[in-house]
Amino acid sequence: MTIGHFEINMIAVIMAAVLYAMLGPVWYSKFVFGRIWMKQRGLPEDLEMDFQPTAYMWGFLLCLTASFSLAVILAGLHVETIREAVLVSGGIGAGFVLTTTGTSGLFTNHKMGLWFIDNVYHVVGFMLAGFMIQWF
After folding, report:
1. Interior CA angle at 108 toward 105 and 109, to 5°?
2. Cβ 67 vs Cβ 13: under 8 Å
3. How far apart are CA 6 and CA 1, in angstroms?
4. Is 129 exposed, middle or buried (0-12, 13-18, 19+ CB in 10 A)?
5. Residue 13's closest CA among 86, 72, 53, 54?
6. What is the pLDDT of residues 8-40, one digit of tens each?
7. Concatenated DSSP letters for 78-115?
8. Total domain count for the chain?
9. CB 8 within 8 Å of CB 1
10. Which of 78, 89, 119, 131 is the most buried (most CB within 10 A)?
């Protein structure tokens, strides 16, 4: 797909979105941040979360939107290496996700641990997406 002067590899965008979306079940598993996340939310540790297909569908579409936007930005910046893509993607995630949600969190009394888990997830997701976009 061509946008202006930039060629966007839609297969790479879709694969980036899949990788970004697949990060969620790992990130929020009880082996990574799931137990801490549940404690921060005040949920019992033995609570089994129901599978919510609609939430996963919308989550994937949002990851797809973020991955497409990231591909356009990386193309516009003429990023040439995987290292550059991962660094720029992480910078975008930190610069936009952490700052905007952090500002909101300051005024809504979110627990810092919960904010960290939920938002660093997106920075890592951006970095994985950037990797996949450049790798393809």
Report:
1. 85
2. yes
3. 8
4. buried
5. 72
6. 999 999 999 999 999 999 999 989 999 998 898
7. T--SHHHHHHHHHHHIIIIIIHHHHHHHHHHT--HHHH
8. 1
9. yes
10. 89
How far apart CA 91 and CA 31 sit, in angstroms, is 27
Matching residue, tokens 């297969």: 11
- Tens of pLDDT, residues 90-102: 999 999 999 998 8
Question: What confidence tens digit (pLDDT) does each residue in 47-83 have?
Answer: 777 778 899 999 999 999 999 999 999 999 999 999 9
- What is the CB-side half-sphere exposure of residue 125 using CA atoms within 13 A? 28
Nearest to 15 by CA among 70, 54, 53, 55: 70
Q: How many helices (H) and strands (E) does the chain have?
A: 6, 2
Which of 84, 92, 98, 89 lies closest to 13 in space, CA to CA? 89
Task: Give me the residue label for tokens 């991962």.
Answer: 86
- Show the domain range for 91: 2-45+52-135
